[in-house]
Amino acid sequence: MLADPPLAPPDACPCGSGAAERTCCAPILAGAVAPTALALMRSRYTAYVRGAIDHVLATHDAATRGTVDVAAVTRWSQDTTWLGLEIVATERGADGDQAGVVEFIARGVTAGAPFAHRERSRFRRSDGRWAYVDGDARAAPVVATATPGRNEACPCGSGKKYKRCHGAG
Fold this sequence. Notes:
By secondary structure, this protein is an alpha+beta fold. It has a single domain, classed as Nuclear Transport Factor 2, Chain: A (Roll). It contains 4 helices and 4 strands; from the N terminus they run ααααββββ. The protein has helices spanning about 25-30, 35-50, 55-60, 70-80, and strands at about 80-90, 100-110, 115-125, 130-135. A 4-stranded antiparallel β-sheet has the order 1-2-3-4. The longest helix is centred in the N-terminal third of the chain and has 14 residues, at about 35-50.
C-alpha cells in the first residue's frame, strides 16, 4: 500500500509556492512590492482565495483597472472553492525586466462545477511596481477537469486525500 504524500504545512500559502503565507503572499497583499511578475501573479491568486479584491484592483494596470467588474470579481471570489494554482510557464518578469508573462492554471469549483482556468497573463513594471495588464485565455489550451476520486490526492496541493480535504462534507 502506498503511503499518503506528506501534508503541506498548516500555514502554507494558497498560491502553491510551498512557503508559509506570512512570508510569501501576505506581505504583498499588505502592500509590499512584488519582486517579480510571478510573485505578483501568486499574490493575486491568494487575493482571490482570501477575498482581498482590493489587492486585485490595486495591482491591476491603471490603464485597464476601470474595465474590472468589481461586483462580478467579488462574487466569483466568494462563490468559489479554490483548489490550487499551477504555474505553467514564465517569460521575463524578473529584476531588470519591464514586462513579463506568467501562464497559469487556477483550479476551483463554482456552483458545483469544477473548472481549470488557464491563462497567459501579461505584466508591466512601472515606477518599480509590477501590475497585471491583461490575460489571454484563448492563447492557452483549455484544460478539462473533473472532480477527483475520493482517494485521489486533492488538487489543492495540501497532500491530503480529496475526501479529507475539499471533498469533505
